[in-house]
């Protein structure tokens, strides 16, 4: 795909304390498709998936009622930013699936890279008058991996569990459109790598569309820049965002959450809750929730934010019950994870077991 990278910046603005760049873009520049190979061999994983992107390989094992084709929903474009320019520059092929019947089992999608290369994966999903639970595994072991997922829901519903497990550089973009009477519930857990740039954009375009988003970014000796953007266009649309992050061992965790209620979104409701806990000296935590309301006819609009040190009294209490410090930290993170996964129904058990696995691996 021909992409003009000249003049593209990583983000439009970078001088404001609230919207400055918290991603270490120089690492992506040093490990871009202009300096690294754009193809890599795949690797067999211990995950059974319906769609598996591994390196430059792709494998489909879809249910009989789902077909795959080439193309995209065109919700993202190469001229938006330099990182998307890199994504499309390296992209070999984009794929699209359509779901029109309820899925009894979660659709499992894997995106993986284990070689020193810059590899792009791109998938579009249409859900129409159906219910579809989805699990996304986003795994980067070496090199730089870019994953873009485009989603459109029309009079349907979905639960999405996103599991980010990174050691190297990762760029992730989920861009979704919710049409009339559509509902999306998501839970994202991110184990940061060298630098993990994770962005989720949601457009609530239909009347009474609903989004419930929960996120658990964790940076332990690693870096996560987690961005959530929600725009309300539909009347009586509702969104609720809850993000709780942890930084430890010189970790770097940032959450920037923006919610906008447009002029035509009368009766809309939006809540943004953003909290980061810094677990030791030398770690970084940033929480920047923002609201923009362009109409006076709303049901509710609120936001909360905090960046706090670990509660040493709570740790002391747990340690007095026989736990060491590491065990006490695991328990505190697990408690937050239990709360954040409560919005799920189909994927709640898998989400909670994933929280346990990630915590065990991190601390």
UniProtKB/TrEMBL annotation:
**GO biological process assignments:** iron-sulfur cluster assembly
- A Pfam match: SUFBD_core
For this protein, the record's InterPro entries field holds: Fe-S_cluster_assembly_SufBD, SUF_FeS_clus_asmbl_SufBD_core, SUF_FeS_clus_asmbl_SufBD_sf
Taxonomically, the superkingdom here is Archaea
Please list the residue ranges annotated as the SUF system FeS cluster assembly SufBD core domain: 116-335
Query: What PANTHER family does UniProt report for this protein, alphabetically?
Result: PROTEIN ABCI7, CHLOROPLASTIC
Return the protein name.
SUF system FeS cluster assembly SufBD core domain-containing protein
């Amino acid at each position: 795909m021909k992409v003009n990278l000249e003049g593209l910046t990583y983000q439009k603005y970078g001088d404001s304390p609230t919207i400055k760049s918290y991603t270490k873009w120089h690492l992506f520049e040093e490990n871009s498709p202009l300096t690294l190979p754009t193809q890599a061999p795949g690797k067999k994983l211990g995950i059974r998936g319906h769609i598996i992107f591994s390196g430059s390989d792709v494998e489909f094992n879809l249910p009989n009622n789902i077909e795959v084709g080439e193309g995209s929903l065109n919700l993202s474009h190469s001229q938006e930013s330099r990182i998307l320019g890199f994504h499309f520059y390296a992209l070999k092929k984009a794929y699209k699936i359509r779901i029109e019947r309820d899925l009894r089992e979660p659709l499992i999608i894997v995106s993986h890279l284990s070689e020193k290369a810059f590899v792009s994966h791109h998938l579009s999903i249409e859900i129409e008058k159906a219910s579809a639970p989805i699990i996304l595994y986003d795994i980067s072991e070496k090199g730089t991996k870019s994953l873009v997922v485009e989603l459109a829901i029309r009079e349907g519903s979905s639960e999405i569990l996103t599991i980010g497990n990174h050691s190297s550089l990762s760029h992730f973009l989920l861009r979704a459109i919710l049409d009339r009477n559509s509902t999306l519930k998501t839970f994202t857990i991110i184990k940061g790598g060298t630098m993990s740039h994770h962005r989720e954009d949601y457009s609530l375009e239909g009347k009474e569309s609903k989004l419930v988003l929960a996120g658990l970014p964790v940076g332990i000796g690693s870096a996560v820049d987690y961005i959530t953007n929600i725009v309300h266009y539909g009347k009586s649309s509702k969104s609720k965002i809850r993000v709780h992050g942890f930084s430890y061992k010189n970790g770097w965790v940032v959450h920037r959450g923006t919610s906008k209620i447009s002029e035509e979104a009368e009766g809309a409701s939006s809540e943004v809750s953003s909290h980061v806990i810094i677990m030791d000296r030398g770690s970084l935590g940033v929480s920047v929730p923002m609201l923009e309301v362009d109409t006076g006819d709303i049901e509710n609009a609120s936001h909360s934010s905090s960046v706090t040190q670990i509660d040493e009294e709570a740790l002391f209490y747990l340690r007095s019950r026989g736990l060491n410090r590491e065990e006490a930290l695991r328990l505190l993170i697990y408690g937050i994870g239990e709360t954040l996964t409560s919005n799920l129904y189909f994927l709640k058990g898998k989400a909670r077991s994933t929280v346990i696995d990630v915590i065990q691996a991190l601390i």
